[in-house]
Amino acid sequence: MREVDAAADDAALRRIALWATRYTPTASPWNEENGADGFFLDIEGAAHLFGGEDKLIADLAARLENFGLPARLAVAATPGTAWALSHFHNSHLFVLPTGDEASALADMPVEALRLTPDIRATLRRLGFKTVGALLDQPRAPFAARFAEQLLRRLDQARGLLDEPLAPIVAPPVYHSLHYLPEPIFTQEAVIARASRLMQTLANVLARDDAGARALRLSLYRVDGAVETVDIGLTLSTRNVSHVVRLFDLKLATLAATHDADFSSGLGAEFGYEAIGLAITRAEPMPARQIESSSASPSHPSPACGGGSGWGESNAAEDYAALIDTLRGRLGPQRVRRFEPVASHIPEQAEILAPVDGETESIGPIWPQAEDRTRPLLLLPQAEPTEVTALVPDGPPRRFCWRGVTYYIAGSQGPERIGAQWWRTPHGETRPTRDYYLVEDFGGHRFWLYREGLYGRETMQAQWYVHGLFA
Question: Could you tell me if residue 221 is inside a domain?
């Protein structure tokens, strides 16, 4: 006797259901009101890989038995009938031919319909003890007296009403699985098998004019545990070497950091008996003609298409490959890029945001500003400086910054930038800025601004250095 731990049961069921995706990508746990009970597998289109439905459930039963989990398994055309057979049929392994659902359910107790305890008790008080006693009865009295669940379960069990299942992981768009004759233990062996799987998927993607944007590598251990590795791509790709390289980087990183979802690392004691590769997000990727030129060739793009080209046609793909590699080595949150913000205040006109492999485009669209000059380096905060000018509201002639005095050979400006009055708190006024691009006699160029309009906003303006040019 042990105290019930429903949370632990649910967690264990989830782990076993995830492991069962070695048979089919669609595994859905079933939880009764009183705790974990089992899971559904949608094996349509997958049973032939094991020699048929009988051999599939025999293999599944044997493996569960090795884990110390004796199971009752049934195959039917509907989830409701499969559940009923697995719980109430005399055989612990049973395959029901399609079309025999009603006859198979007829002799089973009403509990086989997965009804609530109240509905089951009421049916038995009324003399309905088997499912067969309900099948030929008029529906109107049941609809009037019982909850909607009774008729819904009857229709679902017989295939008259669809029963959607919630898979434990999102169903992949494309999926390939490799069962190994002997367990493997090393990262090199895993990457070699992953490369074969990706090559298979690349051929299917090319046929469908599609590319992968997100992929999941699933490693099925002999002891029943499953380790998954997910990657996102900046651009759609069918390039095998690029995807495999990213998985190689991710595996090395997870093994080194002992990630919580990859706790055992590669070289687990029991090894891996199967490897699956799924494309969880795909996008259209039509074939394109890559222009060639007599100019010097560029390197073949590692990111997209699987082909090589010349000139500048692969610039976007090369950029995407670089971003993917940096994210794989450093981590997704450590690779950032500037993105524009709708503001004319220089320090508020851009932000640093992580480069997300799920974004729709590889680069933000920046506003055109041919009439404005901006420095290559904008200081995190504008730094005060002492400026000498011929007139209070004139251009600077000399300034002292960070202990060094600079004599100005030429200047350009001013560019006046007013405060964003619509974002200014009520009653607060912020001074206007006049920006100057200045160059000293040594060729150094600075971006300075004077804060406050002389005579209107202040009688003694303050100067700041805000940015540096070349």
Answer: yes
* Residue 299 one-letter amino acid: H
CA distance 32 to 42: 19
Asked if residues 124 and 131 have their Cβ atoms less than 8 Å apart, the reply is no
For residue 310, what pLDDT is reported? 37
Count the Cβ atoms, other than its own, within 10 Å of residue 416: 12
β-pair type (462-468, 377-389): antiparallel
> DSSP string spanning 333-360?
GG-EEEEE-S-SSGGGSEEEEE--TT-S
Shared-domain flag, residues 391 and 434:
yes
Cis peptide before 167 (omega within 30 of 0): no
Helix and strand element counts for the chain (H, E): 11, 16
Tell me if 119 is assigned to some domain. Answer: yes
**Would 434 be classed as within a structural domain?**
yes
Token pair for 195? 């490369």
Nearest CA to 36 out of 15, 19, 60, 12 is that of 12
Look-up of token digits 């040019």: 469
Distances (CA, A) of 454 to 150, 391, 448: 82, 10, 16
Q: Element (H or E) spanning 196, and its range?
A: helix 187-207
Q: Which residues of the chain have pLDDT under 50?
A: 34, 293-313, 359-360
pTM of the model: 0.71
Distances (CA, A) of 123 to 102, 137, 268, 338: 19, 13, 52, 66
Domain boundary, last residue among 158, 188, 223: 158
Interhelix angle 187-207/240-257, rounded to 10 degrees, is 140
Domain of 271?
Answer: 174-284
Alpha carbons 317 and 186: distance in angstroms, whole number: 31
Q: Using alpha carbons, list the distances in angstroms from residue 417 to 381, 423, 432.
A: 17, 15, 6
Res 364: pLDDT: 61
- Number of structural domains in the chain: 3
